[in-house]
Amino acid sequence: MPPESPPASSISEDDSKSYPYLASLNAAQLKAVTASPSTPLQILAGPGSGKTRVLTSRVAYLVQKYGYKPYEITAVTFTNKAANEMRKRLRVLLGEKQADNLVLGTFHATCAKYLRRYGRHISLPNNFAIVDAEDSKKIMSGLLKAKSDIVQAMGVSLKERAVLSDISKAKAKGETPDAMAIRAARDPSSSTSTLTIIAELYGEYEEALREANSLDFDDLLVFGLKLFQTVPEVLSSCKHILVDEFQDTNITQYELMKCFANVNNGVSVVGDPDQSIYGWRSAEVENLNKMTQDYPGVRAIYLEQNYRSTGSILAAAHSVVSQDRDRIPKNLYTSHPKSTPVTLKTFSTPVIEASFIATEIKRLIAYSGGTLHYGDFAILLRYNALSRVLESALQKDSIPNRIVGGHKFFERMEIKDLLAYLQLAENPGFTPAFVRVINVPKRAIGDKSVADLIAAAKDLKVSPMELCEMVTDGDQLPAGIRPAIKRNLGNFVGVVRKLRRAADKGASVADLLRMAIEKTGYEEYLRVSQPDFDSRWENVQELISYSVVVAEEQAREAANGDLPLLDGFIPASSAAAEAAVELAIKQETEEAEKKIHPMFRRLSSSSSRSRSSSISIEEKPRKRRKVNTDRIDEEVIIEDGPKVQVADARDEADKTKLKPLSYFLQTSMLSTDTENSNAEDQANQQKVTLITVHAAKGLEWPVVFIPAGKLAGKASEPI
């Protein structure tokens, strides 16, 4: 049995003066923080054992003791919230400038950062869009609809969410559509036909994403891995990588870690196999064992003192996890007293159970003498679907409550509408955004007309947005497009163009949002169409406020530095830079001329007669912005009729960040509600929280209930 309190930390007098944060560490934490950076390290940290303190202290120690430059350290967290907390603490330990110069974020955010900078080396344009779950579902819905006859003939039942889940699992394991098809062909089970169809849908889904110049969240990891394996030099500056929540990494994330670590063999991971709860999302707890095989001499350090929970809670938790005979032995202990014992009750029905929980909440508040309030209670669910009975019981007893994980900020209609306009201004090829707002507010463009535009655009090998611009400017219409459509497209195209021009000039996102609202009449549209206008309009104002916060963050990043510039990736002189730009222009023009459709040539020609700002390939092949070869970060715009192509003169010599709009869109798409939840948290602090076990990871409440929660039709083990 471990001692009730840890042995005292042992640090030298010099170290205690140079690194005062070491004095607050216990012996195990101190070993983890001061371990040699050249030895692969596994920190096996139980819940409440101070792993965030250890991670941040180790980063600070690498910088201050071993002289690592901040940009030579990559720290990867599981959530944005954890990344923000780490950076906040590191600003205290290292100062703002050094802390903000670290490469710190989730795997997805880290990969996105490298792909924006170096994606051209794997033929990925740097203005790619990131699709969210709703956009992915809409794309898959269209693909399933096109295949409905085949699917029905095969007697197969497929739903968007299930297919996307299978695709996500495949990407997490590094499986391509072709590899999935081969697996389906070899599968002797009765589900072979289903897997074959899913493999086809996987390939078509990927094709749809590429046509829209977009990546989904899994693609950020897949393409990031492709970049690092194809051009490992882009990671040459990384001397040490630290990975949090390592037990929740999947195969692709493990390979990403290896790419970072293999540069200089510097790697520290923090994990706890007892806390692995994301197997359903392809997490591989076996990565801990795999690491010991791939990195001989791995040092394992156990953090076993719990600073968070009472003795009774630890004892109950240990009695459960100790039944797993294959687990890595680990015994948590605490100096806290046993306190209130954990209570186990059984009920004959979920309704009776829910009624007891509601009554018990009121009883505990009444007998707490004012120390407990509704906001101090949480009910942990296996699935959100289990909340109905509990909500009913709480409402019956007039207990205020909230469900976490419902409609998130960036999933709200009004937020997605405005973001879609900005996405089109940034990336005209992003079809999901086009479909969302071409008729928002109403422009008398029905679903049939939208489908006709998309079909015509595909025939002409252009994006629907680009086709709309040419239709608006030109005298001729492609087959299938009615004259009335041209009249109705005028306002839509005008709004997107104004936003694009303003964005190209570096306008703030707050101004772009206000422009989109004004030019579309979006405020009045919300007022007339939405009964809850006031709350939706507040969300719009919150989005504008959030854009200001992001702009400040971008300015701070720009001041403190970005990914380091790499030897061999920077043009040697202004002349060389100009030559590189000219070559890019020439190659892209030749490629565009090969692909251009005859109908589009006619549209381009008529467009140039009606508007001098539109450029025909035949008459005026290019117009490009002057390149600042001292910075090599300007976009070189080539209007080649069918597409507005970007000769990417930014390259690795881009010492600045993305344009304000690009930075904002990336931050928003990779964001969780944590950045926009302060007002909601204040409003909800006196409400009982209903939340899934997965969403509750890392959160704390004074009182927690865990209902039995077996969902009908679901295979689940009893709690």
Automatic annotation (TrEMBL):
User: From what organism does this protein derive?
Assistant: Papiliotrema laurentii (Cryptococcus laurentii)
Source organism, top-level taxon: Eukaryota
- Residues forming the UvrD-like helicase ATP-binding domain are 24-310
Top class in the EC scheme: isomerase
The protein, known as: DNA 3'-5' helicase
Q: What keyword terms does UniProt attach to this protein?
A: ATP-binding, DNA damage, DNA repair, DNA-binding, Helicase, Hydrolase, Isomerase, Nucleotide-binding
Ranges where the record places region Disordered = 592-628
Residues annotated as binding ATP are 45-52
| Protein family | Belongs to the helicase family. UvrD subfamily.
Q: Name one GO biological process term.
A: recombinational repair
> Would you tell me the Gene Ontology cellular component terms?
nucleus
For this protein, the Enzyme Commission number is 5.6.2.4
* SUPFAM superfamilies assigned to the protein according to its UniProt record, in alphabetical order: P-loop containing nucleoside triphosphate hydrolases
* Compositional bias per record (Low complexity), positions renumbered to this chain: 604-616
**Reaction it catalyzes:** Couples ATP hydrolysis with the unwinding of duplex DNA by translocating in the 3'-5' direction; ATP + H2O = ADP + phosphate + H(+)
Q: Name one GO molecular function term.
A: DNA binding
